[in-house]
Design goal:
The chain is an alpha+beta fold. The chain has helices spanning 6-15, 17-29, 38-51, 115-131, 153-160, 209-226, 271-285, 323-336, 351-357, 382-399, and strands at 55-58, 64-68, 73-80, 100-102, 105-107, 137-144, 168-171, 179-180, 182-183, 185-194, 237-246, 256-265, 291-294, 296-297, 309-310, 312-313, 316-317, 342-343, 362-364, 379-381. It folds into two domains: 6-183 and 315-399, Aminopeptidase (3-Layer(aba) Sandwich); 185-297, Alpha-Beta Plaits, CATH 3.30.70. Helices cover 33% and strands 22% of the residues. The protein has a six-stranded mixed beta sheet, with helices on both faces. α1 packs across α8 (323-336), α2 (17-29) packs antiparallel against α4 and α6 crosses α7. The longest helix has 18 residues, at 209-226.
């Protein structure tokens, strides 16, 4: 029997590269926006069946869960299958849903965020089975839904309803092939004020809600400069992403106005502290009675299931001395032949549920650079695909004591 080595894993992953490109192309071709992922889940199920996964099931929210092995210990690899819309098609130099390979990259919507990670983790499952890299674990591969609309919702469902109990979760979001061990949390906050409407020809008779919300908006701008900083995760931020108002007509004073806040939370910042800061900003603007609250997500999945959650997503970071991280660095160095950069994401991931809410050790590695996420002309280096397959398989081999 051929001995298991990092070199063997790397060579086999490289030999599978064209197949991984083919699978990723199938995923990119299959449009799958949030709550509209049914067709791409079918593509993934077909691939898992062809590989010979030991178990495949689709949960009530529409996540597909592939299984390899039946050990008492459980680890999970996760990738979300939904993408954002392409936006202005004039900004694209090609059809975003007709993938192709050129200049050593695969191009198309989702190649980076985050179908590249989904394709590579599932093909790592193929390599794990072929080389017999797993004895001790039940290894789960979760291709999850609705992350772009509400990160972590899918894993809240998997943990709270499906009762998954992994000891480790590996996120396959793009990291430019580095290892990321955390990121800032986030919140979606709404601020609303009331006014008094009257005819626009005599505004002095009313009380314009837009002027009120504008003064609050300026205080939010100032608040952003006062927020906490953390040596690893960086600075907390707040920005206004939407302004809305209402009035009886366009010839009337606005009687209500509101703003939507995107709040990123670093260490030392909490839901309570963030709300208190926004309320203080309203007070500084002269409107202490402004309504400030965290929004709730309650959209239906493609299965029809509604699983409401508050739009508060906690900050998290895996400790530098975690044994899981030590093993990940060793597997990376062994199979890719260099030391990884251990860093953090700028954006948010499903880790807010696994580690942020539940404290399950979590880290990530994924093909593609996150700066191309949600951007036109999205592309991922092909060499990242075989590299990610090799790393995921090597990590399982390392945790099983095979290498």
């Amino acid at each position: 029997m051929t001995p298991i080595t990092y070199e063997l894993i790397q060579k086999r992953a490289k030999a599978m590269e064209k197949e991984t490109v083919r699978f990723l192309s199938d995923l990119v071709r299959t449009q799958s926006f949030s709550s509209k992922e049914k067709n791409v889940i079918a593509v993934i199920k077909k691939e898992m069946q062809a590989i010979g996964f030991d178990g495949i099931r689709i949960d009530g929210l529409g996540n597909i869960i592939g299984r390899i092995g039946k050990g008492k210990r459980v680890i999970a690899f996760d990738g979300h299958v939904d993408t954002v819309y392409p936006g202005d098609l004039a900004a694209w130099k090609f059809d975003p849903f007709k993938p192709f390979v050129r200049s050593g990259k695969i191009w198309g919507r989702g190649t980076v965020d985050q179908k590249g990670g989904v394709a590579t983790m599932i093909h790592a499952g193929k390599l794990i089975k072929e080389l017999g890299l797993n004895d001790e674990f039940t290894v789960l591969f979760t291709a999850t839904v609705m992350e772009e609309d509400c990160d972590g919702l899918c894993w809240q469902y998997l943990l709270n309803v499906e009762n998954l109990k992994p000891e480790l979760v590996v996120i396959t979001e793009p990291t430019n092939m580095n290892i990321y061990r955390g990121h800032r949390g986030r919140m979606e906050i709404r601020v609303e004020v009331k006014g008094k409407s009257c005819h626009g020809s005599a505004p002095e008779r009313g009380d314009n809600a837009i002027y009120k919300i504008a003064r609050i908006a300026l205080e939010i701008e100032k608040l952003n400069k006062r927020l906490k900083n953390d040596p690893f995760l960086g600075k907390g931020t707040v920005t206004i992403s939407e302004v809305k108002s209402s009035s009886p007509s366009l010839c009337a004073v606005a009687d209500e106005a509101g703003i939507h806040l995107d709040r990123r939370l670093t260490y030392g910042e909490t839901k309570a502290s963030a709300i208190a800061e926004v309320k203080d900003a309203c007070k500084r603007a002269g409107y202490p009675d402004a309504k400030v609250f965290v929004l709730t997500y309650e959209e239906a999945a493609y299965t029809g299931k509604v699983y409401p959650t508050e739009k508060y997503f906690p900050t998290w970071a895996l400790p530098e001395k975690s044994s899981y991280l030590t093993n990940a660095v060793a597997a990376y160095t062994g199979v890719l032949g260099k030391q990884p950069l251990v860093d953090k994401w700028t954006f948010s991931t499903n880790g807010i549920a696994t580690m942020g809410m539940k404290g399950i050790p979590t880290f990530g590695l994924g093909p593609g650079n996150e700066i191309y996420a949600h951007a036109a002309n999205e592309s991922c280096p092909v060499e990242h695909l075989s590299g990610a397959v090799a790393f995921y398989a090597a990590l399982v081999a390392k945790l099983n004591g095979k290498v």
